[in-house]
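User: ok so my PI wants both of these folded by tonight, can you help

Assistant: No problem, let's get them done. Here's the first:
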Amino acid sequence: MADPGPVAHDYDNKRKVSQNTYAVGGIICDVFGLDEVPNDVQDVSCLWLLNPRLSKKEHMEPLAHLIVSAWNDKLSQKHGQGRQGLIACAFDQRNHGSRLVHKLSNQAWTGGNPRHAHDMFSIYQGTAADTSQLINYLPAYAFPNNERRLTSHFVLGVSLGAHAAWHCLLHDERISTAVIVVGCADYRRLMQQRAESSKLQTWTSSSPAGKSFVGSSDFPPALVEAVDKYDPSSLLMGEMEQTSADVMREPNDREKKRLWPLMRDHLAGKRILNQAGADDKLVPYSCSVPFLNWLKKAIGPPGWYAGNGVELVDKSYPGVGHAFTPEMASDATKFITELLDVSGRDSKI
């Protein structure tokens, strides 16, 4: 039986919105709020909900009801141009729920899975690719007569879903906003922390410990290549980290020449809410901090990439472990609905 994990909370929302289920490209998608979109609203945003490891899409339903209902309350007070609807779509991550093919692949090293690092990365990187595929085709199912348009896309992921949400944001230009809940932007650092705590032989056998872990059978060369290509930290900050211990320094001219097109293509104009449990032991906030601080310095004044529309709100919640608490859900709802409110006034996302 699937474990709701970090989303096992009462979000104190009594309201329900409609649910329509479609098989889109072989993936079962639950679409929430479609029937509530007002008849006079043509433009619709979609919030993609990505579930945690060992969980399933049904565990994201309370969040769909909560966030879509909150936006519908705001929408009911609006009149005139610039009104837009909101729907939410939940589907099972690869190898989860209705898509489960191999239980052991979802386990960690301590759960008896010797391929934990490459299993987990390939699963959630594949889920991000699935999200892009579903963005292509969902309008044909939700709006078969082209009666409405999906004009913008948001993603909210929890734990494993949050890792995937980073990939969605960076690698699909149609996704403008991500809510990252107890996720990590630095897969290499997360796996190194987990290998050390698991006392893997590939970690303990070298001197200093961990020197030979990356590139070993527990973190194979093919995985290294994939991480360098898709992972936020490795893609953007990785080269600086390999050449200098001080990643917070100003990038030199050669590094900026490499970074500018990457930042433009993957992050320009995008908004991020990062939510972390300060006491999270499974996905420690400390694993993301170096990249998050690097990004904050780059995009904030007077950073070298300031003024290009990248917004990062980074919140760590004291006393919270690996969980998506009602307070965090409330903050995520406010973040999404306020962005929708602003974009509606501007008539664009």
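One down. Here's the second:
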Amino acid sequence: MDDRATSLARPTDRLLTDIARYVYQYEIQSPPAVERAQIALLDAVGCAMETLSSGDCPSFIGPFVQGCTTRRGFRLPGTAFELGPVEGAFDMAVLTRYLDHNDAFPGAEWGHPSDKIGSILPVADWLSRNPAETSDITPPLTVQTVLIALVKTYELQGCVQISNVFDFDRA
């Protein structure tokens, strides 16, 4: 048996299994948590808008090839760019994080849970605009879906970050 087959035969790490179960099966039933996610989303978009008028950051965003657009792509807020999900995620994350005005969470390692908005929002938007490619996703994605995803990412990052250091020079 080759190394790849051996590695595929190993059981999945329990933490990964627990995270997957939480993401797919746990129902968020806390209205205050969803309200806070809405505030975090608005804050992140506000940071992104401020970033667009700040220094060099606008030169970091946009399509890899100038003038290219992705049909039914993610419309990067505050710009005319319509991007694929990967470019959109990168650009949205750059815009929300560039000025570093957004949230921070302490633990064994500091982190910014709202960084996840940079990937959640563009991917959810792209999936919603491309139903033919995502016919297995039901029901349709809504802002509520995005907010629930944010609640879960905040909770996951917080729980993992409290007791784990990811800067191996400090570990």
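The mean pLDDT is 84. DSSP finds six helices and two strands in the chain. Good luck tonight!
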